[in-house]
Amino acid sequence: MQVTETGAEGLKRAFRVVVSAADLDARADARLNELKGQVKLNGFRPGKVPVAHLKRVYGKSVMSEIIEQTVNETNGKIVEEHGFKLALQPRIKGPEEDPQFQTLLDGGKDLAYDVELEILPKIELGNFKDISVEKPVVEVTEAEVDEAVQRIADANRPFATKEGPAADGDRLTIDFTGYVDGEKFQGGEGQDIDVLLGSKGFIPGFEEQLVGASAGENRTLNVTFPEGYAAKELAGKAATFEVTVKSVDAPGAIALDDAFAATLGQESLEKLRETVKARIAQEYAGAARQKVKRALLDGLDATHKFDVPEGLVEQEFYGVWSRVNEDLAAQSRTFADEGTTEEEARQDYRRIAERRVRLGLVLAEIGERNNIQVSDDEVTRAVVERARQFPGQEQQVWDYYRRTPEALASVRAPLFEEKVVDFLLELANVTEKTVTKEELFKDDEDEKAA
Question: By its UniProt entry, which PANTHER family does this protein fall under (predicted)?
Answer without folding.
Answer: TRIGGER FACTOR CHAPERONE AND PEPTIDYL-PROLYL CIS/TRANS ISOMERASE (PTHR30560), TRIGGER FACTOR-LIKE PROTEIN TIG, CHLOROPLASTIC (PTHR30560:SF3)
